[in-house]
Fold this protein.
Amino acid sequence: MSTLQSSSGVITSVAYSSSRCRRGMARATINMPKLRTGSLSLKLPARDLVQEVLDMGVSLRAATTGHVEKKNESRADSTIPSVSNVSDPMVMAKLHEIMEAVADRVEMHKNIGEQRDNWNHLLLTSINAITLTAATMAGIAATSVGGPLVALKLSSTLMYLAATGMLVVMNKIQPSQLVEEQRNAARLFKQLHGQVQRTLSCGTPTSTDVEEAMEKVLALDKAYPLPLLGAMLDKFPETVEPAVWWPQHRQRQERQSGRTDGNGWSVELEEEMREVVGVLKRKDTEDYLRLGKIALKVNKILAISGPLLTGLAACGTAFVGSSHGPWAATLGVVAGAMASVVNTMEHGGQVGMVFEMYRSNAGFFRLMEETIESNLNERDVGRRENGELFEMKVALQLGRSLSGLKDLAASSYSSSKKGEAIEEFASKLF
């Protein structure tokens, strides 16, 4: 009976100790499994039983904590992007600043182009009105005597002199050519804005992209300046050169051991691009430069003839009523009418704009030549633009289909071979 009581006391103390342990573990937010007292040996002391329960709780808590930490680490790894796919915030900020500056330049060139187009129309209308009015007054003065003669003669002479000065200034700045420059600048800056925007939206921009964008902006500013005084382009150059609005292409290092195919390139495509470059040099660029020279000569003749005719008309009007009255009146009226016709042909026909258009077209083909040669000079095709995309881009810029571009290269190749055969035959003959 005493043994049974002592055993029940031990069991009671064990149950009390295990209940305390369970309450302590509950505070630690770890659920302990329920212990079956029937499976425990009654011969164990209460101290050893409590220690065993505590060891089980510690091991369970360590296992649970490790599982939670691994789960958090895996979740953190899945949410943090790769460093290689993250763009530099400073590069992004610089490109955004460049894009805003380019958008501002587009608006400025557009507004200034409209303003200079208004100049062209207003000056043309005003000078023609002044010239025709002076010619009319010179004709009336030839039939007048006394006070009206002097007034009409003086007024006509002053109007001719004013028209002469205005024509000199107008022919110097060539408003129609200024308008074409601003149109080209606005269009090219808009293209650059789209390129920067694509760079920001696609891929990860680098500092090289920032440098290239800056160089393109500065090259466009130099090619199409906004101010007239000090920075205006020469409207009557001695030699006609293509317009250049792009930075010079960096010389790519030729690699003799590089691959000759891959990345959309092949030997046939390289030969095709070389033939296209030859056609652009021999035909398109030369044709537009030749047309530009013709337009420049016509513009020079008209620009000199207008002020010269109004000056002669002023001299003739000044001698109306003298001994040379009939001839002076004829010179004053006819020269004034001819000056109005010449001024209309030059500025109404916008000959300066035609010259600038030819110069810009020659520059476009020169840019295509340099772009193609820059890709061909890079022997490592992995560093070039994709060959298929590049071929399609060249075909679109030339206004041809892919088959048409191949036909153009084939015809150029056959014509060059015929030319070489004729030269070889002529050299053998002579």
